[in-house]
Write a structure and sequence with these properties.
heterodimer; A: 543 residues; alpha+beta; nine-stranded mixed β-sheet; six-stranded antiparallel β-sheet; 18 strands; 37% helix; B: 150 residues; five-stranded antiparallel β-sheet
Chain lengths: 543, 150
C-alpha cells in the first residue's frame, strides 16, 4: 500500500512538474529557503564550455564584437508590445552561431517561434531553455525573409497563424541546448573571464536581468530613451532591493561583445543589443552595461538578478533528394534529373539506374555544395539499349545521412521513334542536317520551309517516312562534310533552291496540286523541247 | 483518515520539491511577458518624407519605401519621465517595422506638415518597448501595398 502511495505521489509530482505545465514551480509560491535551494539547483545545471586554451589567449584588456556576424536591421529589431524579448535574444544567439558555424549570414525569423510554439502564448514571458526546447523539437530555424515570417506581432496580437508561415528554405538544427555561464559565486574576475571566454569562442551570450521595483525600471527606460549608445548602465543600483510583485520584471537582451581596453576600469563594459527598436541617440539599438558589477547581484530575498547563458548548437541535417522526370531520352541516352537540398552540410549526389529497381549502374558522384535551398541536378547517361524501360533514382549523402529519391522510370526510343522525335522537337530545329549545314542556320527561312515540308507532307505517309529514315541514316556525315567546305555549301544551296520551291508549293497548294503543276510544267517543257527539236530538224532538212 | 491525507500531502510537497531540484531546471520568474501602457492622446505632425534607399537584402517590402518622420505633442501631462517625447523626432513605421510606400502615403493622406490624431503609449508594466505610437486614422497593419494583385 505504501509503495502504491509513493508511486501515486511520484506520478502526481511528475505531472505537476512536467515541462509542459506553464510556470511549473512558481505556482507553489515557495518560501525563501526553498527558492534559494532552487537557485542552487540552477547553479548546478550544465555549464557553458570554457575553452581552457583561450584563457591564455584572451588579453586582460581588449575588445570584441560579434555584431558583424548578426544580420539585423536596427529599426526592425523591435518587439513592440509583445513580451517575447527572450525569444529575440535567443534568435540573436542562433543567428550569430549560424554565421560562425556555417558561414550563413541571414536574418532569422522571430515570428516563427512566436506563432508556432504550441507550448506557450505568442507574447508570453520565457527563458532561454524555452527557446532551446522549441528549436530542439522543431529541428530547424527559418529565415526572416520566408513568406509571412517577418515580425508582425509588435502590436501584441497573436494573429499570424503558424501554418501561414513558409518553412522553406530552412536551416536544420541537429541539437540545441541552453547552457549557463558560471557567474554566481565565482567572484567578479572569474565571472567576467567566463563571459569573455564564451564570447571569444564566437558564441553570443543571452543576458537576462531582473529589477524588482518600478523605480528601477523607470530609470532603465529613461536611460534607454534619453541617453546615447556610449553611456553605460550600472546594475549595482538595483541590487539588494525588494521584489515588488506588481512592479518587478525581467528582460533579456543579446550580449554581443565587450570592451575593457581602457585603463580606467569604470569604462569597461559589455555591449548589449536590445529589441526596442531605435531612438534618436541609439541608431543601432545598442546599450552598454558596466562590467564592474556585482555578478551575485540579487534582490533582498537572495534571488539573483543577472543571468548569463548561451546556446550549444549544431546545425545541419540529412539531405533531401527528389528524382524528377528524365528528359532528352533517345534510343541510347538520357538526361537524369533531380533536386537535392544539402541542408547546410557538404553533400554529394549520384543517380542509380538500371533495368530494374535493383539499378546496378551509377553516375559519377558530384558535389551539391552545402546550401540551404533546393538545387536542381542532372547527369547524362549513355550506352542504353533502345526500346527499354529503365529505372532510376537520385541519392544524396552528407555527414548526417543519406536520402534516396523515389524510383522513376523512362523508356528509351526505338530507331524510328528517334526520327519522329527529331522532327517533333520543340524547337523544330532538329533533323534538317544538310539544309542547315548549307544555309548556316536551322532558323533560315528556306530550312524552315524544308522542315515544314518534312513534318507536314513526308511524315504523313509510309513512303515519306522511309525516305526520312534513310535521310537521317546517311545525312549527318554528309552535313558534317558540307559544313566544313564553303564552295560545297554554295553548290548545295543552289541545288536545294528548286527543292525549296517545290516544298513551298506543296505546303501552299497541297502535294497533289503541286504534283499536278509539276507534271504540267514537265509536259509543257517536254512539248516545248519537242517543238524546239522538230524546228532544228526541219531547218537541217531545208538546208 | 486524517493521517493518510496528511502523509500524502507531505509526500506531495516533498517529492514535488525534490522533483524541481533534481531536474536541474532553474526556478525563476520568466523574462518578458505581458505589458501595460499608459495612453496619452495628442497630435502627430509629419515633419519630413524622404525616399529611402532600397534594402540591401531581400526580405523587405517589394515597393519603394519612404522615411516619414513625425513629432508628437500632447496637452496632457506625461507622468513617466522616460515618456517625455516632446521635441523629438520619430519614424512612422508599419506594425511589422516596414517603411510605408507611395500608395500607403497616398491612401492615408500622409504629407509633410499635416497633423494626425495620435496616441502615445508609455509602458507602465513589463519589459516591452517603452514608447509606442498609435495612429487612429492610419492603420499601421495595412500591408496592402506589398500584396500582389490577384
Amino acid at each position: 500500500m505504501v509503495v502504491l502511495e509513493i508511486i501515486l505521489v511520484l506520478t502526481l509530482a511528475e505531472n505537476t512538474w512536467s515541462d509542459k505545465a506553464p510556470n511549473p514551480c512558481t505556482i507553489m509560491h515557495p518560501d525563501r529557503e526553498t527558492r534559494l535551494k532552487w537557485i542552487q539547483a540552477y547553479e548546478k545545471s550544465p555549464r557553458a564550455y570554457i575553452d581552457e586554451e583561450l584563457k591564455f589567449c584572451i588579453p586582460l584588456r581588449g575588445s570584441l564584437s560579434l555584431l558583424s556576424h548578426l544580420d539585423y536591421t536596427p529599426v526592425e529589431r523591435n518587439q513592440g508590445a509583445c513580451g517575447n524579448c527572450w525569444a529575440w535574444a535567443g534568435t540573436g544567439v542562433l543567428g550569430i552561431a549560424l554565421d560562425v558555424e556555417k558561414d550563413i549570414f541571414d536574418r532569422l525569423s522571430v515570428q516563427f517561434i512566436s506563432s508556432c510554439n504550441a507550448a506557450m502564448g505568442c507574447c508570453e514571458g520565457g527563458w532561454l531553455s524555452n527557446f532551446a526546447s522549441f528549436y530542439s523539437s522543431k529541428g530547424y530555424s527559418i529565415p526572416w525573409s520566408n513568406g509571412n515570417a517577418s515580425w508582425q506581432n509588435g502590436d501584441g496580437n497573436c494573429n499570424v497563424l503558424c501554418e501561414t508561415i513558409s518553412t522553406s528554405p530552412d536551416y536544420p538544427i541537429t541539437s540545441i541546448t541552453a547552457e549557463t555561464i558560471s557567474t554566481h559565486g565565482v567572484g567578479q574576475a572569474q565571472a567576467i573571464a567566463n563571459i569573455k571566454n564564451v564570447l571569444n569562442q564566437n558564441r553570443a551570450v543571452w543576458f537576462g536581468f531582473f529589477m524588482g521595483t518600478q523605480e528601477d525600471w523607470n530609470s532603465f527606460s529613461t536611460f534607454w530613451n534619453t541617453k546615447s549608445e556610449d553611456t553605460v548602465w550600472d546594475f549595482d543600483a538595483s541590487c539588494g532591493k525588494p521584489w515588488i510583485e506588481d512592479e518587478g520584471g525581467g528582460h533579456a537582451v543579446l550580449c554581443v561583445g565587450y570592451n575593457d581596453d581602457d585603463p580606467d576600469e569604470s569604462n569597461h563594459y559589455w555591449i548589449m543589443l536590445n529589441t526596442w527598436g531605435i531612438t534618436e541617440d541609439r541608431p543601432n539599438g545598442l546599450f552598454r552595461v558596466d562590467m564592474d558589477v556585482d555578478y551575485n547581484c540579487a534582490d533582498d530575498d537572495g534571488e539573483f538578478n543577472l543571468y548569463w547563458q548561451t546556446l550549444d548548437i549544431a546545425f545541419g541535417g540529412a539531405p533531401t533528394s527528389t528524382t524528377d522526370s528524365a528528359d532528352s531520352v533517345t534510343s541510347s541516352s538520357a538526361m537524369l534529373n533531380g533536386t537535392v537540398n544539402p541542408r547546410i552540410a557538404t553533400t554529394t549526389y549520384f543517380f542509380e539506374y538500371g533495368a530494374s529497381t535493383a539499378y546496378g549502374l551509377t553516375t559519377g558522384s558530384k558535389d551539391a555544395g552545402s546550401g540551404a535551398g533546393d538545387l536542381a541536378v542532372s547527369a547524362a547517361i549513355t550506352e542504353l539499349s533502345p526500346n527499354t524501360t529503365y529505372h532510376c533514382r537520385l541519392t544524396a549523402t552528407n555527414s548526417y545521412g543519406t536520402s534516396y529519391g523515389e524510383d522513376n522510370t523512362f523508356t528509351t526510343l526505338a530507331v524510328v521513334e528517334v526520327v519522329n522525335q527529331a522532327v517533333t522537337d520543340s524547337s523544330g530545329s532538329s533533323g534538317c542536317f544538310i539544309a542547315t549545314a548549307a544555309f548556316g542556320s536551322p532558323m533560315q527561312p528556306y530550312v524552315k520551309i524544308l522542315r515544314e515540308f518534312r513534318n507536314q507532307i513526308l511524315l504523313n505517309n509510309s513512303i515519306g517516312k522511309s525516305l526520312v529514315n534513310l535521310y537521317y541514316k546517311y545525312s549527318p556525315p554528309m552535313a558534317d562534310c558540307i559544313s566544313r567546305h564553303d564552295n560545297l555549301r554554295a553548290m548545295i544551296r543552289i541545288f536545294l533552291l528548286p527543292v525549296v520551291g517545290m516544298s513551298w508549293m506543296a505546303l501552299r497548294f497541297g502535294p497533289v496540286s503541286t504534283l499536278g503543276l509539276l507534271f504540267l510544267l514537265f509536259a509543257l517543257m517536254s512539248a516545248y523541247g519537242l517543238i524546239f527539236l522538230k524546228k532544228i530538224h526541219l531547218r537541217r532538212h531545208r538546208n | 483518515m486524517e493521517y493518510p491525507c496528511l502523509l500524502i500531502t507531505i509526500l506531495i510537497f516533498f517529492f514535488t520539491g525534490f522533483s524541481c531540484l533534481s531536474t536541474g531546471e532553474p526556478v525563476r520568474r520568466p523574462v518578458g511577458g505581458p505589458c501595460k501602457y499608459n495612453k496619452y492622446k495628442g497630435l502627430a505632425r509629419i515633419i519630413s518624407i524622404h525616399k529611402k534607399e532600397p534594402p540591401k537584402k531581400y526580405g523587405g517590402p517589394s515597393y519603394e519605401s519612404y522615411e516619414v518622420k513625425f513629432s508628437f505633442h500632447t496637452d496632457q501631462i506625461i507622468r513617466e519621465t522616460y515618456g517625455q517625447v516632446e521635441g523629438k523626432q520619430y519614424l512612422l513605421l508599419l506594425k511589422n517595422s516596414w517603411y510605408p510606400g507611395t500608395k500607403f502615403l497616398r491612401k492615408y493622406g500622409i504629407e509633410a506638415g499635416k497633423y494626425f490624431e495620435c496616441y502615445l503609449n508609455v509602458i507602465t508594466k513589463g519589459t516591452c518597448t517603452p514608447v509606442i505610437f498609435e495612429f487612429s486614422a492610419i492603420n499601421l497593419s495595412d500591408y496592402f501595398e506589398n500584396q500582389k494583385s490577384p
